[in-house]
Amino acid sequence: MDAGDLKVFAAVARLGGMNRAAGELGTVQSNVTTRIRQLEQELGTALFDRHSRGVTVTAAGRRLLPYADRIKRLLDEAGQAARDDGRPRGPLAIGALESTAALRLPGVLADYARAHRAVDVTWRTGTSCELVEDVLAGRLDGAFVCGPVEHPDLASQIMFREELVVLTAPDCPSLSAALAQQELRIAVLRAGCSYRQRLEAILAKRGTVGLRCLEFGTLETIFAAVGAGLGITLLPGGLIGPVWRAGRVAAHRLPASEAHVSTLFVQRRDRRASSALSAFLALVVRHRDTIQGGTPERRQRAPAPPSRFSRAPRRHRIGPTAG
User: Fold this and answer.
1) Domains of the chain, first to last
2) pLDDT at 299 over 60
3) pLDDT higher than threshold 50 for residue 308
4) With pLDDT > 90 as the criterion, what percentage of the chain qualifies?
5) Which contacts of 205-214 are long-range, i.e. CB under 8 A and separated by 24 or more positions?
């Protein structure tokens, strides 16, 4: 059994057919069939069930597949490490929450693209659950997700600290008034969104459970739905400035024990950070410290700044408590 055999096996398993795998690998079907038979003979077990529509992975094949994927990833990383001479270049795949991408990273990405033109950046947004899965599977070099994240295969570092606020329709005077509404709904991103889970926990603590969900694909559609009175949502306060100043929503502050959340950058412990990734993270830290004045730890100990919502029109004023 060698790496080439496992590469062929993984392609057949993923594509569900010898012919389709041959097309992807740039060879002929007979070559793929021969290598799979040889691998099965060497292991002494069938890896696929053959049928008229192609093949299906057997239980033994399913047990082998994670090892094949891991070996392929290690070989890819070995090649990248050998070619990495300290100059950022090559592919870089980064993931982030929708809110983090909109609030924290536009300037970072623009500066990074100008400084490191030899790097091909792939950018993906998703929920924390989706992004963690992609990092573990090696599809992303790292991702910005909502903390806490505890997994033995992941290393994490705090990048940002956010204050979460509850958004309602602009004429809603308080969170308690919103919760008193008939047929209250939450306007959220799809299942797996960390802010959605946090909002459900906050509402459950106040005795509000079993709410209907309005699921949307973008933050802008969530803003529109909340502004129209279709539901409430939970987002970082730093993200809502334009829609709040325009009077499209009202924002209600929460107690500190519920409001503060950390955004982490997670990456695999066993994966070497490329020069491209190291340069990206260094730039994120420089942007963060320039904009927010110091590390997350120093900001946490500093006196709280005046409310960013204090200049709201009277009917949009933020309540001093969660209601």
Assistant:
1) 3-83 (1.10.10.10), 90-161+260-301 (3.40.190.10), 163-259+309-316 (3.40.190.10)
2) no
3) no
4) 60
5) 205/258, 206/179, 206/322, 208/179, 208/184, 211/184, 211/185, 211/186, 212/183, 212/185, 212/186, 213/185, 213/186, 213/188, 214/185, 214/186, 214/187, 214/188
